[in-house]
Amino acid sequence: MFQNRLAKVWKHVSKIAAKQGVTCFRFYDHDLPEFPFAIDRYEGMVHMAEYKRRHGMTDDEHADWLSACRDTIAQVLDVPQEAIYVKFRKKKESRQDQYEKFDRKKEELIVREGGLNFIVNLTDYLDTGLFLDHRITRGMVREVAGGKNVLNLFCYTGAFSVYAAAGGADTVTSVDMSKTYINWAKRNMQYNKLFDDKKHFFVNEDVLEIVNYLQKDKYDLIVCDPPTFSNSKKMEEEFEVQRDHVKLLKRLLNACTDGGRIYFSNNFRGFVLDREAIPAFNVKDITAQTTPFDFAGNLHRKCYLIEK
C-alpha cells in the first residue's frame, strides 16, 4: 500500500519539480494514516520524519518497521539506503533529543533554491534549516527588497535574509533568540558571497523584547514568522500567536515606513487574524498565493501581506 502510494505521488510531484527547476521539495505528507511521514527530497538526498502517534509497537518492532519503510523509499526512488535520512521519536528527557536517526554523524550539505545556496542539516534536528513551504514567499521578498531596509524576525537560518540581500536590499537585519540559528544565518549569507558587515546585521536576542524598542519608521520591509507558542527561559513572558499577534503587529507597523510591507505568517492551525484591530492601510491573505505545488492541500500555515 505504501509502495503504491509513494510511486504515484513521486511520479506526479517530481515531474512538476523538474519542470519548475525545483530541486528541494516535499513529495509525501501523511498521505496514508498507517504511514504518517513527511518525506522531502533535498537534491540527491531524502529526509523522512515520522509524525508523533501511538503506534502500539515495541521499540524493536518500530525500528524494524521504519527500516522496511526506508527500504521501500529506496526502491521507489531508486536511491541508495545511505541517501535516506530517517528521524524517529525516542523517549528522551530533553525535547531537543526526541528525534534520533539511523547511526548518522552530523552531516551538512549545500542545496540550491532560486539560484541561491543554502546549508541544510539532515542529521541533527527535525527541521533541516530550510522551510520548503515558504519557497514562493521568499521569492516575493526578493522581488521587492531592492533599496529597502529589511528586518527579518524569528529569522531561523536566514533564508529570507539571503533572498532580500540577493534582491538588492540596502540593509538586512536578522534577529533570532537561538545563537545556533543566528550563526547559521550568517553562514548562509557568507556562502552566497553576499555578506557585507556594513549592510547585514545578525542579532542574537529575544525577538519579543527587541520589538519593544524598534526605531519608528525605520524598516521598509519586515518578515515575521513567529512560533505558535513560546515560553523560553530567555524570555520575560510567554507568547501565544493567537492571543498576542495584534500587539506584535502594532509594534511592527510602528517600525514600518509609510507604504512599508510586513510579511506575517504562522503555523497555528486555528489561527484567525483580527483584521479590525490592525491599523494598516491594507491587509491581504496571501496563503493560497504562497502555497507551493508540493504543499497543495497539506499546508496549515497562514501568510499575510500587511501594508502600512
Q: How would you summarize this macromolecular structure in one to three sentences?
A:
The chain has seven helices and 16 strands. It is of the alpha/beta class and 308 residues long. It has two domains: 2-106, 2-Layer Sandwich (Transcription Regulator spoIIAA); 132-307, 3-Layer(aba) Sandwich (Rossmann fold).
Notes on the protein architecture:
With 308 residues, this protein is of the alpha/beta class. The chain folds into 2 domains: 2-106, RNA methyltransferase domain (HRMD) like (Transcription Regulator spoIIAA); 132-307, 3-Layer(aba) Sandwich (Rossmann fold), CATH 3.40.50. Helices cover 29% and strands 28% of the residues. It has 7 helices and 16 strands. It has helices at 2-20, 59-77, 135-144, 159-166, 179-191, 207-210, 241-255, and strands spanning 24-29, 37-42, 45-50, 84-89, 99-101, 108-113, 116-121, 149-153, 171-176, 200-204, 219-224, 229-230, 239-240, 256-266, 282-285, 302-307. The strands form 4 sheets. It has a 7-stranded mixed sheet with strand order 10-9-8-11-14-16-15. A hairpin with a 2-residue loop joins β6 (108-113) and β7 (116-121). The longest helix is centred in the first third of the chain and has 19 residues, at 2-20. The radius of gyration is 20 Å and the shape is globular. Residues 90-103 have low confidence and may be disordered.
